[in-house]
Amino acid sequence: MKLGFGLYRHHLTPSNYQFARQAGATHLVVHLVDYFRSAPEGARADQPTGGNNGWGHAGAPGEGVWTREQLAALRRDVNDAGLELHAIENLDPGVWHDILLDGPRRAEQIGHVQTIIRNMGAVGIPVLGYYFSLAGVAGRTRGRYARGNAEAVGMEGAVDQRPLPHGMVWNMVYDTAAPAGTLTAPTEDELWARRRRFLEEVLPVAEECGVILAAHPDDPPLPRIRETPRLVHREANYDRFAREPVSPANKLEFCCGTLAEMPGCDVYAMLEKHSAAGNLGYVHFRNVRGKAPEYKESFLDDGDIDMMRLMEILHRTNYQGVVIPDHAPLLQCDAPWHAGMAWAMGYIRAGMMALARRGTATS
Prior knowledge:
Layout: E1 2-7, H1 14-22, E2 27-30, H2 68-80, E3 84-89, H3 93-101, H4 106-123, E4 127-130, E5 141-146, E6 150-156, E7 168-169, E8 172-173, H5 188-209, E9 212-215, E10 224-225, E11 228-229, H6 235-243, E12 250-255, H7 256-261, H8 267-276, E13 280-284, E14 287-291, E15 294-298, H9 307-316, E16 322-324, H10 336-362
Parallel strand pairs: 1-2, 1-16, 2-3, 3-4, 4-9, 9-12, 12-13, 13-16
Antiparallel strand pairs: 5-6, 6-15, 7-8, 10-11, 14-15
């Protein structure tokens, strides 16, 4: 098991690479999509939640087709800081909106994603995390939810069911000139078919290039948000993600917090099953209290999940991949994001060391 660190696009600086290494990380998972593109500068430290217009504007069409030169430079900067670049998380809606919507530019955008995968493989970035969703991560709120009134993210029972307007998908606006009106939502079966068709066209390229595609579950895990269906709102559906279609490049981005929010989900049994089967691309390590649509993110030691039990499962199943704290409550200080992430990194690092020492003592 390897300790990683997640960085949003605006965090991709030598200073933050150094911070991640100092906190114990050996690997990075980075976001190249700019979720904060329309946000005020002061709102860029923590994770996005969004308002009526979602997270803001996606990149211009094709802007998120990262070139081989861009990716090589990014990997070089990360390596220079003593880190490995394990994964890029998420595709810009400007690159794949018509894949999600089954729109007129679908074939062109399949080519965009295939190009990204080829470029990642060429420079040695092994994992692309993706989230196949129309509404995306929507409906969350921010408040003093965590221990000591620390600021965190959650849901307060309300589920946003306003229809998606034209020009918006994945909780971002990809076309500011779209006509008035709202999206005609597909059925859940139609959305499953779109995902399968997408993967059948890109997984052969991923296999050829040595890149893994890792699927994030629906966050929050509810059957419908913004009048659109969700694919992973129950445990059996995530199992289906892992087995359809069959490919060594089809893996899971196992988000402990999201899956624990899922009503009826046994996150321990799920992790045991998928880790033992080799289905994990990487792991988001996060704790929560409650179930969607009423849950709150918490400190790792203070939620409903026994996070050390999850670490023991990963250790016992010989998981060799990367674990990152995808986000954490903000600590009350002059650098709340850095402090919160450092706290989470220390917890995970201590757990890894304890498990390694236990294994050595047993042998």
